[in-house]
Design brief:
By secondary structure, the protein is an alpha/beta fold. It is built from 15 helices and 15 strands. The longest helix is centred in the middle third of the chain and has 175 residues.
C-alpha cells in the first residue's frame, strides 16, 4: 500500500486544480520552495483529508478559512476539495478495490462532504476505513517541527503528550475522563435522590393518615351507594311497571282511535263519493231533460217534413195526370196528321208548274219556314200550320217532320213522367223513413222513465249521505272524548318519565350508572322507607367527616411506589458509582501497563536508532522515580561517543534536534505507517547531522514512503522526486515537479 497522488483544489493557496503524483519507485519525495509559498499547505491538506477537524492543527482560525480567500486579481472560491489516492494492491485497506480514493470537500457554511471512491460517506466511515492501516488517529504518519519542539521542550506535560500518543493511551484517558464525569454526575444524583427520599418519606406519614380517613369515608360512601342504587332500582322498577300499564292502555286507545279514524275516513270518502254521485245524477237528470226537449223538437221537425213530403206527392201525382192528358192530345194529333196526310197525297204537283225547278226551290224554303212556325205555334199551344205545296212526296216529308216533332214531345213528356214517378217514389220512401222516425220517437217514454229512475237514485244517495254525516259527527264526539283520555294518560306517562329521568340523572352524576346498569344491579331492598332513612343517615355521616382527601389513598400508594423506586434508584446509583470507580481503576491499570510496555519498547528502539545516528553513542528513556508511571516525568539521557551521560538540554542545538528526530523515528517504528510526511524536521541540523538524517531517511524509505518538506540541499539530494512550490501569481501556489531518478537514467 502506498500513496499514488494528492489532488488539491481551492485549498488555502492552491486555487487551481493541482495533482501531486507519487510513483512507487520514488520512495523519497521532497517538497521544496521559498518561505510562504504554500509548502506546508500540502501537509495541512493531507492532515485535513485524513479527518483532522482542529483548526489549530490546520493553522487556521476556522474551517471555512481553508477555502481559497482570493487575491487582488482573483475572486474567492466557494469550496475546497482534497483527494488522496492509494494503491491497494496488497489489500491492506479492507475494500475490494486495487485503488482507493478518499475525498473531502467543504463549503463556506462549514458544511463538509466525504467520499470513498466517489461514493458519499461519513467522516466516521473514513476513520474506520483507515483504522489499523497506520494512517488512523494516533499514528505518526505526519511528523512536524512542532513535535520535535515538544520533545525538546522543558515542559514535561508537552513531552508527555508525544509519548502518550505513541503509547495509544489517550483512548484510556478519554474513557477515564468520561467515567469521572459520570461518577461526579452519579454522586450528585445520589445526593439529590437522598434529599428526595427524605421528602417522600415525610409525605408518606401525612398521606397514611389521610388514606385511612379516605378509606373509611369511601367505605361509608360505598354502603350509601349500594343502598341508594338498590332503592333507585326498586323505584325504577315500579315506574317501569306503571309506564308499561299506562302504555298498554294508551296503545289500546290509540289502536281504537286508529280504527275509528280508518272507519271515519272510509265514511268521509263514502260521503264524498255520494256527493260526487249526487252531483253526477243531477248532471244526468239535466242531460235527460235536455234530451227530452230535443226529442220533442225532433219529432215536430219530422212531422213537418212528412207533411211536406205528402204535399209534394199530391203535387207530383197531379202532374202525372196532366202529362197523361198531354200525351193523349199529342196522340190524337198524330192520328189527325196521319189522316191529313192521306187527304193531301192528292194535292198540288209542282212538276206541272212552269219554271218548276225554281218554284220547287222556293216552296222548299217556304216549307221549312212553315214547319218552324208550326213548331213554334205548337209550343205556344196553338194548332200546327199546314202548307202543302208541291208534290205529294214533299207533303209526305212535311207530315213526317211534324210527326217526328210530336213524337219528340211525347218522349219529353214520358221522360218528365218518369222523373215525376221517381220523385213520388222518393217522397214516399222519405215518408216511410219519417214514419219510422216517428215510431222511434216512442223512446221519449224511456227517457222519462230513466229520468224518474235517476231522480229516485238521487233521493236515495242524498238520504244515505245525510245518515253518514250524522254518524261522522257522532264519531267526532267519541274521538274527542278518546283524545282527552289519551292526553290524560300521556300526562301521567310524562310525569313518570320525568321522575325516572331525575333518578337516572342523579345516578349518572353521582355513580356514573345508566338505568340499564341500575336495573341489572344485584342489590335488593325490602323496605323503601327504611332504605331512605339509611341513605340520609349515611350522607349525614359523610358530611360530618368532610373535608376528606379522596386522592390520598391513590397518592399514598403512588408515594409508596415512588419511595420504593427511589430506594431502588439509590441502590442502582450506588452500584453504578462502585462500577465507575472500578472502571477508573481498571482504565488506570490498562493505561499504565500499556504506557510502560510502550516506554520499554521505545527505550530499546531509541537506543538502537541513536547508536546509528551517533556512532557508538548510547541513549535511554526512563521514568522519574517516586511517582506513578502515568504522572512521572519522562527523562531522556544520551551519551554521544566518547562523552558522559547528558540530558538533552545540555546537547548542542543540532544534537538535540537529531536526538528528537531519533525518538520520532523510533515511535514511527512502533506505530508504522504506509507513508511518513515530515515537515521541516531537519531545519535545526548542521551539515554533519544532516548526513546522518538522510541516511536514516534511506533506511526508513525501505518500509514507508517518505515525503519531506525541506530547505536543505542534502535532503533534496536523497529524494527520488522533487516538487517545487512557487507563487508565480501572488497568493496562488503552483507545483513544479522533477523526477530525479528518470533524469539520472537519461543522463
Amino acid at each position: 500500500m502506498f500513496l499514488k497522488s494528492l489532488v488539491l483544489r481551492g485549498f488555502k493557496t492552491f486555487a487551481d486544480l493541482v495533482e501531486i503524483e507519487f510513483d512507487d519507485y520514488a520512495r523519497i519525495t521532497a517538497i521544496v520552495g521559498p518561505n510562504g509559498c504554500g509548502k506546508s499547505n500540502v501537509l495541512d491538506a493531507t492532515r485535513w483529508v485524513l479527518g483532522e477537524d482542529n483548526p489549530r492543527e490546520l493553522r487556521v482560525a476556522g474551517l471555512s478559512d481553508i477555502i481559497f480567500a482570493g487575491t487582488v486579481e482573483r475572486k474567492s472560491l466557494s469550496l475546497a476539495e482534497v483527494s488522496l489516492i492509494f494503491d491497494n494492491s496488497a489489500g491492506r485497506i479492507a475494500v475490494p478495490f486495487t485503488e482507493v480514493s478518499i475525498k473531502r470537500r467543504t463549503f463556506r457554511d462549514s458544511e463538509s462532504e466525504f467520499f470513498i471512491n466517489k461514493n458519499a460517506c461519513r467522516l466516521k466511515d473514513i476513520k474506520d476505513l483507515l483504522r489499523d492501516t497506520g494512517l488512523g488517529e494516533g499514528t505518526y504518519s505526519i511528523i512536524t517541527q512542532g513535535q520535535v519542539d515538544a520533545i525538546l521542550s522543558s515542559k514535561s506535560d508537552e513531552r508527555r503528550l508525544v509519548f502518550e500518543e505513541a503509547a495509544g493511551i489517550n483512548k484510556y484517558k478519554s474513557r477515564k475522563i468520561s467515567a469521572q464525569k459520570k461518577l461526579i454526575s452519579a454522586e450528585q444524583n445520589i445526593l439529590r435522590i437522598n434529599d428526595l427520599k427524605i421528602e417522600v418519606g415525610e409525605q408518606l406519614i401525612t398521606l397514611e393518615s389521610q388514606s385511612k380517613k379516605a378509606k373509611a369515608y369511601l367505605e361509608i360512601g360505598s354502603q350509601v351507594k349500594e343502598t341508594e342504587i338498590a332503592l333507585s332500582k326498586k323505584l325504577l322498577s315500579s315506574i317501569f311497571e306503571k309506564k308499561q300499564t299506562l302504555q298498554e292502555e294508551l296503545d289500546k286507545l290509540r289502536k281504537a282511535a286508529e280504527e275509528k279514524k280508518e272507519t271515519e275516513e272510509k265514511e268521509v270518502n263514502e260521503i264524498q263519493s255520494l256527493r260526487e254521485q249526487n252531483k253526477t245524477l243531477e248532471n244526468e237528470i239535466e242531460e235527460l231533460a235536455v234530451k227530452i226537449e230535443a226529442e220533442k223538437d225532433r219529432l215536430r221537425d219530422i212531422e213537418l217534413d212528412r207533411r211536406f213530403a205528402e204535399s209534394e206527392i199530391a203535387r207530383e201525382e197531379k202532374r202525372l195526370g196532366d202529362i197523361s192528358r198531354e200525351v193523349e192530345v199529342l196522340q190524337e194529333k198524330i192520328s189527325q196528321l196521319a189522316h191529313e196526310m192521306e187527304q193531301e197525297r192528292k194535292g198540288f204537283d209542282r212538276a206541272s208548274v212552269p219554271f218548276g225547278g225554281l218554284v220547287a226551290g222556293l216552296l222548299d224554303e217556304l216549307q221549312k219556314i212553315v214547319v218552324s212556325l208550326s213548331s213554334l205555334f205548337t209550343l205556344l199551344g196553338g194548332k200546327p200550320i199546314s202548307l202543302s205545296f208541291g208534290s205529294s212526296l214533299e207533303k209526305e216529308e212535311t207530315y213526317k217532320m211534324k210527326l217526328e216533332f210530336i213524337n219528340e214531345e211525347i218522349n219529353k213528356l214520358n221522360a218528365e213522367k218518369e222523373n215525376t214517378l221517381y220523385g213520388v217514389g222518393a217522397h214516399k220512401a222519405e215518408i216511410e223513413n219519417l214514419n219510422a222516425k216517428l215510431n222511434a220517437g216512442a223512446s221519449q217514454q224511456k227517457l222519462h222513465a230513466e229520468l224518474s229512475q235517476k231522480k229516485s237514485a238521487k233521493e236515495q244517495a242524498y238520504q244515505k249521505m245525510i245518515d253518514l254525516e250524522e254518524r261522522v259527527r257522532q264519531e267526532d264526539k267519541d274521538e274527542r272524548k278518546s283524545l282527552g283520555e289519551e292526553t290524560a294518560i300521556e300526562i301521567a306517562l310524562a310525569k313518570l318519565e320525568n321522575e325516572m329521568n331525575n333518578i337516572v340523572e342523579k345516578l349518572s352524576l353521582e355513580y356514573n350508572l345508566s338505568a340499564k346498569e341500575t336495573l341489572a344491579h344485584p342489590g335488593e331492598i325490602a323496605n323503601t322507607a327504611k332504605a331512605k332513612k339509611e341513605v340520609e343517615e349515611g350522607r349525614a355521616r359523610l358530611r360530618a367527616m368532610e373535608p376528606v382527601n379522596l386522592l390520598a389513598v391513590e397518592e399514598f400508594e403512588r408515594a409508596k411506589e415512588r419511595f420504593s423506586f427511589i430506594e431502588a434508584q439509590l441502590q442502582d446509583l450506588s452500584s453504578a458509582r462502585e462500577n465507575l470507580q472500578m472502571l477508573i481503576i481498571e482504565l488506570d491499570q490498562k493505561a499504565e501497563q500499556t504506557f510502560l510496555e510502550t516506554m520499554n519498547q521505545l527505550s530499546v528502539i531509541f537506543s538502537e536508532t541513536f547508536a546509528k545516528l551517533f556512532a557508538g553513542g548510547e541513549a535511554q528513556i526512563t521514568l522519574a522515580p517516586g511517582a506513578p508511571p502515568l504522572e512521572a516525568e519522562i527523562e531522556i539521557s544520551v551519551r554521544p561517543s566518547g562523552r558522559k551521560w547528558l540530558p538533552l538540554s545540555l546537547l548542542s542545538g543540532g544534537e538535540r534536534a537529531l536526538s528528537a528526530i531519533a525518538i520520532l523515528f523510533s515511535l514511527l517504528k512502533i506505530r508504522p505507517s504506509p507513508f511518513c510526511f515530515l515537515d521541516e524536521v531537519d531545519a535545526a541540523l548542521d551539515e554533519a547531522n544532516i548526513g546522518r538524517f538522510t541516511e536514516m531517511l534511506r533506511d526508513f524509505s525501505n518500509q514507508s514512503q517518505i515525503i519531506v518538506i525541506t530547505h536543505n540541499k542534502k535532503t533534496m539530494a536523497v529524494a527520488d522526486t522533487i516538487y517545487g512550490i512557487t507563487m508565480e501569481e501572488p497568493g496562488v501556489s503552483k507545483v513544479i515537479s522533477m523526477k530525479l531518478t528518470q533524469e539520472i537514467a537519461i543522463a
